[in-house]
Amino acid sequence: MYAIIRAGGKQAKVQAGDVIDIERVKSDDKELTFAPLLVVDDKGNAVSDRNTLDKATVTAKVLGGTTGPKIDIFKYKNKTGYRRRQGHRQKYTRIEITGINLGGAPAKKSVKKAAKKAEPAATEEE
Fold first, then answer.
1. Which residues neighbour 104 within 8 Å (Cβ) at sequence distance 6 or greater?
2. How far apart are CA 42 and CA 31, in angstroms?
3. Structure pTM?
4. Of 71, 97, 101, 106, which has the most beta carbons under 10 Å away?
């Protein structure tokens, strides 16, 4: 079973036991919950119904903070002596996905019923 979650403006495909880095979360909680955008069970059935997903949760345990790679920014204009040097290092929170819960039985797929055409009544011959 896997789910698609939204964290920090980005989406991630997660399964139970995955360890991922998300945008920094300023919280002292040791456990986070996410509302999934899509859940696919072991049989391959996708659940994307909003009413069903409102009850679903993805729980994660916070492992700690990490930093991303250093990005060097250098601006230069020829023949003017204009040089600017800057660096950036993004902060991330490392989490481990502990479980995906649908919050009940998955809803049956709703199939639009086609309008039944008037069929001639079948007559029994005796």
1. 52, 55
2. 25
3. 0.71
4. 97
